[in-house]
Amino acid sequence: MKKQQTGQPMNRVDGRLKVTGGAKYFADHQPADMQYAALVCSTISCGAIAGINATKALRAPGVVDVVSHLNAPPVPGYKKTTPGNKNGLQIFRDNRIYSNGQPVAIVVANTLERAVYAASLVEVQYNQETHYTNMEASMDKAFQNNRMKDYSRGEINAWQKAPVTHSAQYTIPLEVHNPMELAGIIAHWTTPDNLTLYAKTQGVKSVQETIQELFEIPEQNITVHSRFVGGAFGMALRVWPLEIATILAAKKIRKPVKLVITREQMFTLVGYRPNSSQKISMGATPDGKLTGITHEAVAITSPYEDFTEGIVAMTKFMYDCPNVNTRYQLVPLNMSTPIWMRGPGEATGSFALESAIDELSYKLKIDPLQLRILNHADTDPERNLPFSSKYLKEAYQIGAEKIGWSSRNPVPRSMQENGMLVGYGMSSGTFGAYRGKATVSAILKSDGTLTLQSAAADIGPGTATAMVQIAADVTGITPDKITFMLGESTFPYAPEQGGSATVSTVGSAVSDVCHALLKELANLAISQVPAFKQTTPELIIYEDGQLITADRQTKITHEALLQQQKLPEVKVTATSQGGDERKKYSMYSFSVHFAKVHVHPATGVVRIQHIVSVADAGAIVNTKTARSQMIGGVVGGIGMALTEEAILDHRFGRFINNNYADYHVPVNADTPPTDVYFVNKKDPHINPMGSKGLGEIALIGFAAAVSNAVFHATGIRVRDLPITPDKLLHIASTENATT
Amino acid sequence: MPQGNKPSSVPPKKDKQEARRDFLKQSSAVMALALAPPLVLKAAQHDEAIAAVFEKMPVSLEINGKKMQLSVEPRVTLLDLLREQLALTGTKKGCDHGQCGACTVHVNGQRINSCLTLAVMQEGKKITTIEGLSNGDQLHPVQEAFIRHDGFQCGYCTPGQIMSAVACLNEGHAGSPEQIREFMSGNICRCGAYDNIVNAIMDVKNGGQTA
Questions:
Q1: B1 and A30 in contact by Cβ < 8 A?
Q2: Considering the domain B141-205 in this protein, what is its CATH number?
Q3: Global pTM?
Q4: Mind listing the domains of chain A with CATH numbers?
Q5: What is the pLDDT of residues A337-396, one digit of tens each?
Q6: How far is B191 from chain A (nearest CA, A)?
Q7: Do the strands A257-260 and A35-41 form a parallel or antiparallel pair, or are they unpaired?
Q8: Quick one: which of A41, A45, A125, A50 has its CA closest to A95?
Q9: Domain B14-132 annotated CATH 3.50.50.60
């Protein structure tokens, strides 16, 4: 019997490249005669450019050009839109300034140092106007667009009539993706209408599409390379103005240009998780049955785009509650446009919902885990459909057992350990399990190796590794003979890596193309090899790179089959997408997070001691890389819960902590031992592998688990992330209030 | 490569440009200072070579076992020299401010942030980058352990993490998971592979393999 490859903890296929420095990220490429760029960014937050004096910069050694709205080559695609119509930031189209840090010019020189220095010599004059960057002070500007209609089922605001109610406001500050790799691009116009890009992107095909629309050149003239991406977490899901600026500079000077932005520019040029304020109100019967939930959310966006995400999505279906209504509004500010940040809106929403459930549980005097089980939605109450699979109760059980939930004293501030206040908290998360459309080519060579190609991406989860495992299971070819190639726009179509859908979407196409390849080989054997004449493709056994007759009497290797027919290779391409199973089932992944925290009774410092995260994500393709995704989500969640907050000085509309020293992402010492468990049961409906998504649920809900644990430890409820010590400083004076 | 530095083990022969630099040098810095700044700039505009003469300094470094005689601007960081002029792109730039550790290399066996030092400050030093860690095709035990324990996701911080991990072991700071977490906290991993990184380092430590 062949060894099943999916479900194994296989090492990454590109691990060696990553540990030797051999993995080439966009900025590691160096086309001949490449020039270096640096951005000049706005120092005002609203207004217009009155003038740009580039004389000094142009005189500096090695400077090739200074490109701005005054002299940039035209972008043909801009003409399709009217300025000021929420078209996004059309870089260098005109002199308008919408936010601080907006690029106003790009300087190109023959060395990096010269470009950076020359950028400091560009003098920009502005006509400044009043800016708005404070959401709380700008609530009068809140609006809804047609993507964010109010939702309701049952009675609106039914919670008000319930015997036990809870209502509170939860706020989350602006958070920045901050992948380790700085954003940027290398742009090279090889001819006036042929463009080659080395990009940092979650989808080469979508880059190609955007460039095609803007520059109106044929798709095949745009080549996008993006084999390795140094993290993204959502920020590389679109083409940003800084990339268009570089492409324009390259067009003007007719040489390849590389731009790598600075860490501080990562806060203003490539999106962020918008700060938000959410009010959750809920009511229940005294025995803990939810009767109504109202969820109202407000988040920020830019003046030129309406960014929306699933902030209120989870509230609609997570619990079996007859009356639910939600409202979601945006406040446009003088800021750049946000973009989905890991877990995206659901991570934001789950902090409010899962904190509120916890708060309600104390009012009801019901264990918070028990309250969730009491209100478990067996079917999707939003769409009135069965779930394709849902093992949330199993996940609750695994997590509770592993963290030792039963030994928790439910009374807040009742537990101590080594002079520290001890708290246990838990929460749950969910995210849609999607499946899109993708195409994969399979090339079997006469040496027995199989190469698969698709324009998919890998921002870290280990796409190629999972695909090799899926292909190995279908074809019976051993993983060492299979290569999965991605990150090239010349490969067949795959969507962006986002929304936890790559294994589901691209994996299904890999499965399909491998089945098609086997059929091709079978037909070849049946028509050309006498011993196979009497069989059918379905009866043939495929093992170890061989075709074997059902009676196991005759075998032929792929090599022999191709060589016999003098075929250098067999190539098959297949496109795959789901059918109408989505109309019959609601498809979601679920996660459960348990946290044990220590809180210092005098300083309010929170240290997480132990984390148990459990995922119901269907069948796990690679237990090693899946675990890495889970612990990664947890680390992101620790940042969200305890440390991450981009702070604006509203007087200037400028960030004051736009670097890694002041914007605190968790470091190694901030992370406790993390135990990860998978329910690991196949979803029978979603795709051939039975795998749901994992990347988002790893983070969704986590921050609430920590804040719930902090409440249990201290009796202090923090509804305003992150939970920094200053918010717990009154800890000593509240000592007797809750115990 | 605009600045034309190529790794080599022998000092480059003096070409015309070198001779001119020597002449300018000998005719004293006084002359350079005496030149009015606009004149210097104008000269730069018209003659890139002269500007290069004023801007560059010789520096000799041993990088991954190879002795190199280089000519670099004093403002060039060791990180940018490695990446942009010597095509050693394994060392990564994550912040350029010594806050993330992605650019960690060894200088005379000690780990440093290569973005925080100018190349000319390392005159005569031995630099080891991620490209110089393995023994040919034979990976360093820490590299092997990172693969085994999946001590990365995107891989961008990995070269810095591995250079730091090797130093952490050599320094004797890998005594326990807690100590490793502390002494590896100068290397940020936004993908959050910390647990696996600690396990990889502990594995090498316990395997008794010298780092």
A1: yes
A2: 1.10.150.120
A3: 0.94
A4: 31-130+180-231+236-267 (3.90.1170.50), 276-434+583-734 (3.30.365.10), 436-577 (3.30.365.10)
A5: 999 999 999 999 999 999 999 999 999 999 999 999 999 999 999 999 999 999 999 999
A6: 5
A7: parallel
A8: A50
A9: no
